[in-house]
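Worked Example 4.2. Consider the chain below.
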Amino acid sequence: MKPIALFHENARLTPKGDEGAIDSDPICDCQDDGGLRSKIGAVRPVADDTATADIDLTFTAASPPETQRLKITLVTVHGQWRTYDIRSKDTPSFRASLVKVNTEAKHGR
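Applying the procedure from the previous section yields the following structure tokens:
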């Protein structure tokens, strides 16, 4: 399932008034991106339509500043690169987490 379809499915499965599985920005995993700086590291092709990118996010407003490394999987959709998955130290796969939450919601867990 395409990532955007997972977002729409989660919105459909979430009871009205609840925030659902996505209660923060999935890229920075934050509520407030004040002082956030990003640096794109290595971008590696995996296949003709897939690549991975290493991204360092530094929260400069924190004392001391905190940096987290993301690995983003990109795929091409109609000739444009789109985010397919986001991995971090705390989230091995944002996509897998969203699939799990949606599956549990479908089965009333």
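Strands lie at 36-47, 50-59, 66-77, 80-87. The chain is about 20% helix and 40% strand. Compare this with Example 4.1 before moving on.
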